[in-house]
Amino acid sequence: MHARHAVYCAVGFSGVAMLLDQVSGGFTLPRAGMWAALGAMVFAVLLPPRVTAAEGWLAVRGAGRERRVRTDALSVVELYGQVAQRLVLWDAYGGRLDLNPRVLAANPLLWHLLDTGARRSRERGTLRSGTDVLRELGEWIDGETARAVLGTSGLE
Predict the structure, then answer these.
(1) Number of independent structural domains in the chain
(2) How much of the chain is helix, strand and coil, in % rounded to 5?
(3) Residue 113: which domain range?
(4) So where does this one cross the membrane (predicted)?
(5) What is the pTM of this model?
(6) Rounded Cα gap, residues 21 and 17, in angstroms
(7) How does strand 66-70 pair with strand 74-80?
(8) Residue from 62, 67, 72, 107 nearest 88 by CA
(9) Contact of 134 with 118, CB cutoff 8 Å
(10) Consecutive sets of 10 residues in the chain, 156 residues long: mean pLDDT of each?
């Protein structure tokens, strides 16, 4: 859904820019290419990162690059920010990624895979820092999920 909005914004930006350029009388093929390139940059900036996971790993693919961590070998978990929060995960192999915690709240399966991997990390002794962050995040996600269920069922 958000990717579709990024496409709409990029196409809209390029279209309006080309239309205004045409109205001003300065529209040429090289300028059309420039507006298309700027539209592509708008798309790249607005495209939300794609978060994927499976047993033992979590990956975030952004503009041109994928970052991956082993959730069963996490070493540090930190939460930064008050308004725009970022969850930062490091694994024992040097992998690092950051993501918005709302992504985990919106997809309970992602949260379950991360939580299961973090439990394995604690059992193996690789998780040195961040157990409190994960516990608080779990409580927050459980509360968000409960509010969503109550709101959907009309019991709110």
Answers:
(1) 2
(2) 60, 20, 20
(3) 50-153
(4) 35-60
(5) 0.71
(6) 6
(7) unpaired
(8) 67
(9) yes
(10) 84 93 89 93 85 90 86 93 88 92 88 92 91 89 80 74
